Amino acid sequence: xxxxxxVTSLTSPLVEIPGVDKSALxxxxxxxxxxxxxxxxxxxxxxIVVEPDGGIVFATDGQGxxxxxxPDRKATLLVETNEGEATRLIAAPGGLLAATGDxxxxxxxxxxxxxxxTYESPVHDSGTVARWGRMSWRGPEGKAxxxxxxxxxxxxxxxxxxxEPLADLPNSLVRSPNARYIQWRAELxxxxxxxxxxxxxxxxxxxxxxxxxxNVTTLAPSASSQPKASSSASAAYSITVTDTGxxxxxxxxxxxxxxxxxxxxxxxxxxxxxPDGDRLTYALYFRGxxxxxxxxxxxxxxxxxxxxxxxxxxxGRYYFRVIASDRPSNPPNVxxxxxxxxxxxxxxxxxxxxxxxxxxxxxxxLEVDADVVDSTSPLxxxxxxxxxxxxxxxxxxxxxxxSPREQFHIVIDKLRAGEHLLVVRAYDTANNAGxxxxxxx
Length: 441
Prior knowledge:
Blueprint: E1 23-28, E2 34-40, E3 45-50, E4 56-60, E5 65-69, E6 75-80, E7 86-92, E8 95-100, E9 105-109, E10 116-120, E11 124-138, E12 144-151, E13 164-165, E14 172-173, E15 179-189, E16 196-204, E17 210-219, H1 231-234, E18 240-241, E19 247-248, E20 265-273, E21 281-288, E22 295-301, E23 305-309, E24 316-325, E25 337-341, E26 345-347, E27 353-356, E28 360-362, E29 365-373, E30 379-386, E31 392-394, E32 405-412, E33 420-428, E34 433-440
Antiparallel strand pairs: 1-2, 3-4, 4-5, 5-6, 7-8, 8-9, 10-15, 11-14, 11-15, 11-16, 12-13, 12-15, 17-20, 18-19, 20-23, 21-22, 21-24, 24-25, 24-26, 27-29, 28-29, 29-32, 30-31, 30-33, 33-34
């Protein structure tokens, strides 16, 4: 190794995978088959002692607990030292010795049963503030007394409630205040006292849903949605062609009107969720910018989208409000709701008005002025066409087409002799098109 070099030892950190056993006790039989005697997803086994009758005593890092696994494979908690971990067990005359870490201590476990004992359960996290129900357990009647306490910190501290006693009978009502965390304690009375299958019923607090976004868009009509010509409509203007090639047109035939296609639709969508996974219903309201009261569009919707006819709202700015409720999953007295108001949405169904000046023609040179006004939204572009030809864009007089009123100066050179049709088309930001025409002679 050269001077000045440093050697670094890299070790992989310990990674815990939720839901996977941390430790287990296995029995390997004479025929090489393996049996799992005990396993835990929360505790690591540090030391094992095998007793003469085949029982197994083992120590873990769960509050320095010591368990005994009987030959019938029933695990019993012998003692909880309330230290970080029980690291070593030694069989000694007069009882079992247990050494603990974090706070170095040595315990002697006598072989005989004690006259009494106390056990404190781990702290249970209900995930949110909960209302406690009844506590149940199994064990000899009158051999155990139970207490509970609750709080809103993960570890019991001064903010927690005091220990509250329960009635000695199973299914006793828990008297501790509503909180997120709860812990119970059992005081065992007399030799042979034991309890098992301890459980506490609780009802988590209902959390309100959350409306996260509202999106308002316009949907252009699809080709398939265009109306088909009916027989009555086609009869308004008809030309009959005979097998001789002659055609006849009724005198005084009215002008055929080309029907306007269906207007676009307004699509309102929103995103909402519930932290408890409750089913949600929605109510949708709207209000104009100059209005004070909300008007209901639709109530009790299970879906999170609504389509409106594009012409149902007049031009102007509107707000949309979505109210989400978890009533389908909760009693009326505890149901919660949330609401969100959209940003202002501009509805514009009116096209710009295009006004053209008289054409000014000099041989092959033509000039026309266009004054374009839109009552609701800014203009986006302007263009012209000669004799139904290709559209040619026109620049605004001030250089940028960005206001509700713009002026355009159209100049066409090398215009051939004869009569021509000039059409000017202007679009606003809502994609409405206004047109005007002038005949140039």
